[in-house]
Design a protein that fits this description.
Blueprint lengths: L5 E9 L25 H23 L4 E6 L4 E7 L3 H10 L2 E2 L2 E2 L1 E8 L2 H23 L7 H5 L14
Antiparallel strand pairs: 1-3, 1-6, 2-3, 4-5
Helix pairs in contact: 1-2
């Protein structure tokens, strides 16, 4: 029996609202929820159309085994499974997508992995980081603190915790 080798791509869909004025911070307020009607099936159809547009019949055929395993319209995050031979083509096609459901969008690939577990861990880590930053904006800080960065083992004191 031959083993099917796949790659899992963690993607985020960003919706830029307006360009930053000259001389200001170039980061755009991208994080908005996706339209509620954007489901796994509709996202899969959009990706297949993009592959067919960018790579023709070959791209459409290569997308035959592509599946959207997870998509959350609230966080605009998704996990896509594709064969190992075609993940770069899918990545290129996602990069060239300029709109999703008639709305200007930027699709970025955050992580590529051979197992879905590693992609799920990264998605969870990014969601927790987003919550932490959102709490910091309205509360006591501005997100990550210097002590959070230095505290690599999570016990509240800086250092690795293995020194005596």
């Amino acid at each position: 029996m031959v083993r099917y080798k796949a790659r899992y791509l963690l993607i985020t869909i960003h919706y830029p609202t307006e360009p930053a004025p000259p001389g200001s911070n170039p980061t755009l307020p991208f994080t908005h929820p996706s339209h509620p009607s954007l489901t796994k099936q509709s996202l899969s159809n959009l990706i297949r159309d993009s592959l067919a547009l960018q790579f023709g019949d070959y791209g459409a055929g290569a997308a035959g085994n592509m599946t959207v395993k997870y998509f959350s319209p609230v966080t605009s995050t998704g996990i896509i499974k594709v064969s190992r031979a075609h993940y770069r083509m899918l990545w290129a096609s996602l990069t060239f997508m300029k709109e999703v459901m008639g709305r200007g969008a930027v699709v970025s690939v955050v992580r590529v992995s051979g197992t879905i577990k590693k992609v799920q861990i990264e998605a969870t880590r990014r969601a927790k980081e987003g919550i932490r930053r959102a709490r910091g904006v309205g509360g006591e800080g501005v997100g990550l603190d210097v002590m959070d960065i230095l505290d690599d083992d999570g016990d509240g004191d800086e250092g690795s915790g293995d020194e005596e």
